[in-house]
Amino acid sequence: MLEQFLHFKNQHPDKIILFRMGDFYETFFDDAQVCAKILNITLTTRNKNKENSVPLAGFPYHSLSSYLPRLIAANQKVVICEQMEDPKRAKGLVKREIVDIITPGSIVESEYIHSPDDNFLTSLVCEGSEYGVASVDISTGKFNFTQLQKEQLPAELERLSPKEILTLQLPRDAEIAETFDAKISHSQYEDDQIQLERAQEILKEHFSLLSLAGVGLSEHPLATKAAAIAIAHLKDLKKNDLKHIDKIEYYSLGACVQMDKSTVANLELTKSLLEGTTHGTLLQVLDQTCTPMGSRKLKQWVLRPLLQQEAIEHRLEIAEEMLDKIDLTLALRELLSKIGDIARLTSKISTGSINPKEMLAIAQYLGLSREIKEILDSFDSLSLLQIKDNIQNYDQIIDKIDSTICENPQKAITQGGIIKSQANQELGELHQISSQGKSWILKLEKEEKEKLGIANLKIDYNKIFGYYIEISKRHADAVPERYIRKQTLVNSERFISPELKEYESKVLGAEERIKELEYEIFCNLRSFLQEKMSLLLEFADTLALLDVYANFAQISFHRGYCKPKFNDQKILDLKKSFHPVIKELLKTQEFIPNDIYIDNEKNNIVLITGPNMAGKSTYLRQVAVSALMAQIGCYVPAKEASMPIFDKIFTRVGASDNLAKGQSTFLVEMLETASILNSASKDSLVILDEIGRGTSTYDGLSLAWSIIEYLHSSHLKGVKTLFATHYHELTHLAETLPSVKNYNVIVEKEDDKIIFMHKVLPGKASESYGIDVAQLAGIPAPVILRAKEILQTLENSQKKSKKVQLHTQLQAFPASPEKKQTPQNLLKLQKKLQAISTDQTTPLQALQLLSELQKIASQES
After folding, report:
1. Candidate ranges 192-196, 500-504, 645-649; pick with highest mean pLDDT
2. 488 in helix, strand or coil?
């Protein structure tokens, strides 16, 4: 038996072998030790204390649905090895075969996927600095691909969130390994020398195509290879043709808003920064969808906002009518809430893993299509009517399932009890024989009791002996000669009679034939449904669209969101905007809304000052989130909203490091900032929070100052920027850079305590209130008092130092030339410098004067 196990293990050394032995799945050797730890089951040993000892760990076969998800969640790959014959009838060793291979990215059974999200296997093919990326969800049939540059890959993998990565080589190469999280399961495709021609043949054969040009693959060779190895790998695992994966879609990163990995993380679109879960995320707040298909569709939209205004307004138009007719929309949502995951059930049809109850569920969901169409008939939008037309007549499918599967079928498909008697004439007759058996047994039992005068005689059945007559030993003398002894118990004897033997043969034969015939009928029904898979998948996708649109209308109605308008003047104007997530989380507090106005010339860099805890970061994020929501076609959290179409959204918020790569907090900050400055365009939205705080004050201030000037420069003129800072020196930039405007978060102080007003208004903050915030946090009073003393000393010293340094520099400036040789602008500067000694000029103005003088001196020399 161990030789049999090792045969399978040698084929799959990187996988856990679940080896069926009777009523248990057993694991051996290293597999046993891994499973015992992950599943918290007992690790035992055969031949303990001997050289050939064998570690074992197992669990009951009927508990597979409980244990398998835990192995998959631990990124284990699992081979299911089943007994292929009845051990009672087998001669010698029971024959076993691999019936399924399950990896994190190849799960079909919905009970093993504890999330409505896509369960992607993503394949990567690299050549130079370019990648082909193909992602397939075998549980829904979704399959898409793209081709991109290496620097774009981390953000795309963050968006896809694959459960498994497939590559042509092991990730020993740092260039490959650094592109994805080490926690993600990784597999290697065996043929790492696959050529483009072979990849094309694999795809043409699967999709029954003469050419790949129609699906966009002919122009993307790396993506073609990635798609080919993904589908070939899954076929090898499942030994199935995967016909439910019947289309492949190309997508371009240039067709949606570009957001890097840190932006997706900082805006907490799908994962919270603190917990790494969906709690407190934009997706959690927006996702009030009714179906798993709608939930997946919404997540795709959130992570891929649109760039084309026409496409955005198409979505807004549908959401608007659904909002106007909210009663109809709520009725539609009630119907949608009764529909399960048709997409994943359809995939189970393809892989042959669907059970009778799931077939009945499909019929039930399809049956709601008529009512859905009736509701859609009451809408006027041409787009909604087009969606309605995608809902077909499913009566044939519904009738076929309902007339075949019985009302409460067994889950097992080979043990009978799943098909209606009316579905087949022979089956009906067999069911009648089987059902009449109980009454026949009762009649025989009554007759034998009366004939023999044995009141406690009974006729029963078990799997080992079949039907038998049981008589207590004290009535042994009354047993007739026609009874044949079968078994002796302590207090009774069991017999068989010719009459009962004949009946047993007839009934058991009928029951075996029922099982065979019902399984045959079930397989025929499954084949029929396999022919209808494209119809079912189209229905699932239509429901997903309706679900997302109805969801947008519902949340806008209940939360007071407004329809965004788009303008060509590149103006971002939000009235009484709020952060949708924070407002929902503040159950007992009122969220203070704020306005934001950014134009394309005089007011496109907003510099925000104010203390910590006052709401600067929330203000920054709510602007970015509002822009994103508008471009996915959703209403936005504001009273009014007018905005441009943004091509990219960038955020640099918070502090984080990457110790694994030896990157400090400040280095990570600078890497992310560099990416923004190198990638932003005039049509981008940039959110920067506390740039430069990870180094010395003057280093940080200098960098922040220079970054603002760079964003103000001509080649980025117009880029919408919100820049929050505690460097109050930066507020003077509004005096020299025309597009920079100061805003601050209002704070009031009463009795030495600060009150956060959470209101953002024009102007600059007078101080940072850092010590006051520390006091609110509970820092001991002596520490607060001493901090205030030190602050006063440092501020006085800094003012004196700056003044002395400034006068020293001015005194060292070369004497001016004679009046007739002095440029007019130098004369003006000299008059302004007279104000230095009387403190009428600010330090910033003096520094600027000094800079101008130095330029002139350089020209004179």
Report:
1. 645-649
2. strand
Single-letter code of the amino acid located at 540: A
Check: CB of residue 227 under 8 Å from CB of residue 123: yes
Distance from C-alpha of 734 to C-alpha of 721, rounded to nearest angstrom = 14
Rounded Cα distance, 134 and 221, in Å = 12
Please report how the helices 326-336 and 309-324 are oriented relative to each other, as an axis angle in degrees rounded to 10.
100
Instruction: Say which range, 100-109, 266-275, 618-627, 844-853, has the weakest mean pLDDT.
Output: 844-853
SS3 123: strand
Hey, is 530 helix, strand or coil?
helix
Number of other CB atoms surrounding residue 189 within 10 Å? 20
Amino acid, res. 648: K
Q: What are the tokens at 263?
A: 């932006």
Beta-carbon contacts of residue 267 (< 8 Å; ≥ 6 apart) = 259, 282, 621, 624, 625, 628, 649, 651
Q: Which residues contact 226 (CB under 8 A, 6 or more apart)?
A: 123, 124, 125, 131, 132, 133, 134, 145
According to DSSP, the residues that pair with 643 across neighbouring strands are 566
Residue type, 301: W
Could you read off the pLDDT of 460-473 as tens digits, one per residue? Answer: 888 777 889 999 99
Residue 172: predicted pLDDT: 45
Cα separation, 96 vs 2, whole angstroms: 12
Give, in order, the Cα–Cα distances in Å from 177 to each of 181, 263, 397, 661, 703: 8, 22, 47, 12, 32
Closest CA to 299 of 281, 317, 313: 281
Question: Residue 141: which region, alpha, beta or left (left: phi > 0; alpha: psi -120 to 50)?
Answer: left
Dihedrals phi, psi of 195, to nearest 5 degrees: -95, 160
pLDDT tens for 738-774 read 899 999 888 777 666 767 667 888 888 766 777 777 7
CB atoms within 10 A of CB 21: 17
Of residues 80, 85, 101, 102, the one with CA closest to residue 27: 80
Contact in structure between 252 and 636 (CB atoms under 8 Å): no
What H or E segment, with its residue span, contains residue 367?
A: helix 356-367
Question: What's the CA gap between 745 and 726, in Å, rounded?
Answer: 12
Whole-angstrom Cα distance, residue 370 to residue 367? 7
For residue 722, give the DSSP letter. E
Residue 603: closest CA among 623, 577, 573, 576 = 573
Average pLDDT over residues 341-357: 92
Angle among Cα 622, 625, 627 to the nearest 5 degrees reads: 110
Question: For 391-415, what is the mean pLDDT?
Answer: 93
Category of 92 on φ-ψ map: left (φ > 0), alpha (ψ -120 to 50) or beta: left
What is d(CA 300, CA 319) in angstroms, rounded to the nearest whole number?
A: 17
3-state helix, strand, coil in the chain (%, to 5): 50, 20, 35
CB 225 within 8 A of CB 194: yes
The amino acid at 126 = C
> Is residue 246 within 8 Å of 207, Cβ to Cβ?
yes
Q: What one-character-per-residue DSSP string does 159-214 give? A: HH--SEEEESS-TTSHHHHTTS-TTSEEEE-S-TT--HHHHHHHHHHHHT-S-SGG
pLDDT digits (tens, 9 = 90+) for 137-176: 999 999 999 999 988 888 899 889 899 999 886 554 455 5
How many C-beta atoms lie closer than 10 Å to residue 115's C-beta?
Answer: 11
pLDDT for res 210? 84
Residue 575 DSSP label: E
Q: Which tokens is 322 given?
A: 């659904």
**In whole angstroms, what is the distance from residue 223 CA to residue 531 CA?**
29
Structure tokens belonging to residue 208: 């029954």
Collect all residues with Cβ–Cβ distance below 8 Å to 313 and sequence separation of at least 6: 566
Q: Which residues pair with 608 in a beta bridge?
A: 724, 743
> What is d(CA 496, CA 483) in angstroms, rounded to the nearest whole number?
6
Rounded Cα–Cα distance for residues 821 and 277 (Å): 71
Tokens found for residue 159: 């968006």
